[in-house]
Amino acid sequence: MRRIFYALISLTILLFVGCNRTPKASIPDLKISTNGSDILVSKGSYEWSNNVGLFTKETINADSESPEQIAETIDGNEVNPQSELTLDFSEKPNNVKVIAWGDSKDTTYTYTDDKIIVPNEKGIYIYEVFGEWNQGYVSYTIKIIVTNE
Predict the structure, then answer these.
(1) Which of 100, 120, 139, 148 is deepest in the core (most CB within 10 A)?
(2) Other CB atoms closer than 10 Å to residue 66's CB: what's the count?
């Protein structure tokens, strides 16, 4: 009888200690590169949920400026026309959308298999990479400067 009593007490303590532990929000990172060079990525708005107990979920919301406003604060990266940008997420998203902003809204670009092919025309292009996971979403902004070769 004592063994069962001590086992129940131990299990109860273990459950309380384990359930009160708050995990660190692990918001995925995005690395973008082209021809071995890294592209500057700026994290924007996100919403991320974590389980903090058996029945408790914590959601973190972070609002930021629009990708156009974020792009005004970063230098951007110069690339050649038709360069291929490779997207590498620290955690694979369920869905990815790439949205052109600013003057590049109506510009044609190609996005397939975690790659963006920038336009052939010289100019400044602002892209928002929007990733969705089971825990939430994250917006990333990049500024690309297509130069003549």
Answers:
(1) 139
(2) 16
Domain range enclosing 65: 2-146
Residue 73, phi-psi category: left (phi > 0), alpha (psi -120 to 50), beta (remainder): alpha
Per the structure block, which two tokens stand in for 106?
């109506």
Q: Give the Cα-Cα-Cα angle 96, 49, 38 (nearest 5 degrees).
A: 40
Per-residue model confidence as pLDDT tens digits over 28-77:
999 999 988 999 999 999 999 988 877 888 899 999 999 999 999 999 99
Token pair of 117 as six digits: 């092919």
Query: In this structure, what are the phi and psi dihedrals at residue 16, rounded to the nearest 5 degrees?
Result: -65, -45
**Given CA atoms 21, 23, 24, 25 in this order, what sign does their dihedral have?**
negative
Number of domains in the chain: 1
Residues 79/118, Cβ–Cβ less than 8 Å = yes
Name the helix (H) or strand (E) containing 68.
helix 67-72
Cα–chain center distance at 93: 8
Q: The pTM is what? A: 0.79
